[in-house]
Request: fold
Amino acid sequence: MKHLRVGIIGDPVEHSISPAMQQPALDELGILAVYERWPTTTEALPGRIASLRSEDALGANVTAPHKLAVMELLDDVTPLARRIGAVNTIISRHGKLTGDNTDAYGFSASLTSRFPSMDLGRIVLLGAGGAARAVVLALETLGAREVVVWNRDRAKAERLRGELAPDLLRPIDPDVESLRGELANADLLINATSLGWHSGEHPFPLDLLDEIRAGAVVTDLVYRDTDLLGAARARGLGAFDGLGMLVNQGARGLELWTGKSAPIDVMMAAAVTERARRA
Ligand code: NDP
Reply:
């Protein structure tokens, strides 16, 4: 019997954890499919997307730098993916390609699985890039009341507010003192900047965490144990990294490709193992 195909499209894709968590999940569901790495340059993108129209293709994940460029090559893009401004999942059905974005779902599922009854009154969001956009839409759906946005380029934070959620977002100046003033009232602090992949790298001086009230939670979209999370934990704050978001966005993608419920525990265990293998 012929295998179905699904994979990750990006440049590069060698670093991706997706194959390590999607293949065991497909196997667990009994679906005869292979999840592949599809390194794809910008020039090769149209050909790669066209190849997804064949009957044996389930779809694909999309990562940098193609999340935006891929949109015009698809038949349909969901309103959510359009609002976020990025496609991270393509679903192929009878030759028709739909682009979706599962990052907002991934963040939301990760947060609520750990803190199901968390008060989302005041949130401080660091960063205003693609991942921050998905987080804002997740927070909106979860009923957050106010999201303070702190980004090194304030104009980008202002654009985020104007384009996505004028009533929810409140950009502030990118200096440390402006941030300090907001932390005391925060229920949740989210690092959606690119800082944290290397030790010694953090978005602000960590002693600022002394300002956060007991019971608040700190999360990082980076999926390693960052210095920020370590410092939060040392102060008795709730803290969790971005692996749950990564796994849940992948689980949602798997459900869209297969119509079956994703084996989330299998995916999480595989992702944890793969991360440890690379450490
Ligand atoms: P973008 O490039 O779109 O945005 C990067 C953000 O980080 C911007 O706000 C940028 O600020 C800020 N930034 C970058 N460098 C610095 C710096 N030196 N000092 C201060 N701020 C900085 O990236 P993404 O939004 O796609 O990704 C952000 C992070 O989230 C990455 O670490 C990524 O790996 C992670 N991620 C995790 C996911 C998960 O499933 N766990 C999913 C998606 C992303 P400025 O606007 O001023 O340039």
About this structure: The chain has ten helices and twelve strands.
